[in-house]
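Cross-check.
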Amino acid sequence: MLEVKLDTGFNIEVDFLLPGFFKRFLAWILDGTIIFAYYLVGSNLLGSLLGPEGNRRILVWVLFGAPPFFYHLLCEVFLNGQSIGKKATRIKVISADGGEPTLSQYLIRWLFRLADFPIWILGSVYYGALPWWCSIFLFAGLACLLATPYSQRIGDLVAGTILIDTRNRTSWEDTVFTELAEDYKPRYPQVMQLSDKDINTLKSIINSVSKSGDYDLSMRIADRIRSKLDISSDQDSLEFLQTLLKDYNYYSTN
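Predicted model, tokenized:
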């Protein structure tokens, strides 16, 4: 399986797995099935309740065309970079710098979905809302996906995002929240100089090191942070990173 090295907020390269074409295609099929079934069932149900065809088309679009149209945008924003199909196949959208995408990145990649292979085009062509030649857009995204080294579609290239395989990797649904003892005493107030993105990356690295035992990575990260924040510490690298995460939680909630 292909891998990509992404530079984290600490200037440390971390490997991420790239999903194979079959997994991406399967996710696309699952999402497309959900969208098409919703539109087909909804439009037929509405058609049986309404009269003239002209009035029906407007309501079909408003009630049953708009939700599928915004399906991927809403899913990725509220499901942390995953649609239902992506979640089922364990793939996820992340930023090309290794962090969580911003709202604007999600919006950009969604806006460029028309230039990729949107399943809703087939429905629009079928119902006469778009001319038949719009179906050629179905192949533009596939060509881009095959031609780019990181298997990015047009929307990913423009938005600066990439699709990764979450299998055997740190759970990207994890938050930075960590339970603290009631009498916990923080040690490093300098941690608040780090950004939310840095803290998210920090927790991902801690989880990864704990699972893989790659203490060389934790030592490099710890050295970078000590230098960046001008911290002196006698803790070992992993313990130091874990303390930073706890301190961030303490100062964020007090």
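Residues 168-174 have pLDDT under 50 and may be disordered. The longest strand covers residues 3-7. Passed to J.P. for a second look.
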